[in-house]
Amino acid sequence: SSPLQKKRRAATARRQHLKSAMLQLAVTEIEKEAAAKEVEKQNYLAEHCPPLSLPGSMQELQELCKKLHAKIESVDEERYDTEVKLQKTNKELEDLSQKLFDLRGKFKRPPLRRVRMSADAMLRALLGSKHKVCMDLRANLKQVKKEDTEKEKDLRDVGDWRKNIEEKSGMEGRKKMFEAGE
Predict the structure, then answer these.
(1) Alpha-carbon span 9 to 148, nearest angstrom
(2) What would the 3-class secondary structure string for the chain be?
(3) CB-based contacts of 121: which residues, under 8 Å, 6+ apart?
(4) How far apart (Å, rounded) are the C-alpha atoms in residues 121 and 134?
(5) How far apart are CA 79 and CA 72, in angstroms?
(6) Are the CB atoms for 64 and 55 separated by under 8 Å?
(7) What does the record list as coiled-coil region(s) (predicted)?
(8) Which of 64, 46, 45 is nearest to 54 (CA)?
(9) CB atoms < 10 A from the CB of 107, how many?
(10) How would you write the pLDDT of the chain (182 residues) with one tens digit per residue?
(11) What is the C-alpha R_g of the chain?
């Protein structure tokens, strides 16, 4: 094996070693995070949820139920407030990301609809309503008069065979032939 192949193998082995070391570090970090979350959860529960002691008499039990209901209501209000704060924060995030998009010059194009518009209306939309532009396309066309040539006159005198076929074709032609036969 050549020295180049040995270098490649060494680089690949080093890359594999670094990858496995990074994965091992990531696994230990995830385990540490999970343990920290569990400890935080236990502390929160110990602080906010004292151990339950069931009283013996009916009166004390009713008092306990009332306290629990009050606690549930306060927690529900707190949850609602947190949800509202989260919604506001999400909305602010969306607005800021939209502003960022606009500043970069990249934005989502809205779906466009086809609109039928005359040339006049299009020019009015482009130039504004102040400018009165009449766009008559036929006004700028040249008028060309067809001059009769002698060839065409001869053809007309002889009669065009296409014209004769057109007269006899279709229902009109059949009707004429039928009437002529009677």
Answers:
(1) 92
(2) CCHHHHHHHHHHHHHHHHHHHHHHHHHHHHHHHHHHHHHHHHHHHHHHCCCCCCCCCHHHHHHHHHHHHHHHHHHHHHHHHHHHHHHHHHHHHHHHHHHHHHHHCCCCCCCCCCCCCCHHHHHHHHHCCCCCCCCCHHHHCCCCCCCCCHHHHHHHHHCCHHHHHHHHCHHHHHHHHHHHHC
(3) none
(4) 10
(5) 10
(6) yes
(7) 27-106
(8) 64
(9) 9
(10) 688 888 888 899 999 999 999 999 999 999 999 999 999 999 999 888 877 777 788 888 889 899 999 999 999 999 999 999 999 999 999 999 888 888 877 656 778 888 787 777 777 777 776 666 565 666 666 666 666 555 566 555 555 556 666 566 666 666 666 676 65
(11) 45
Q: Which amino acid is at 25?
A: L
Token pair in block for residue 52: 């339950």
Two tokens, residue 3: 């020295």
Residue 68 CA to residue 54 CA, distance in Å, equals: 12
Is the pTM of the predicted complex or chain greater than 0.70?
Answer: no
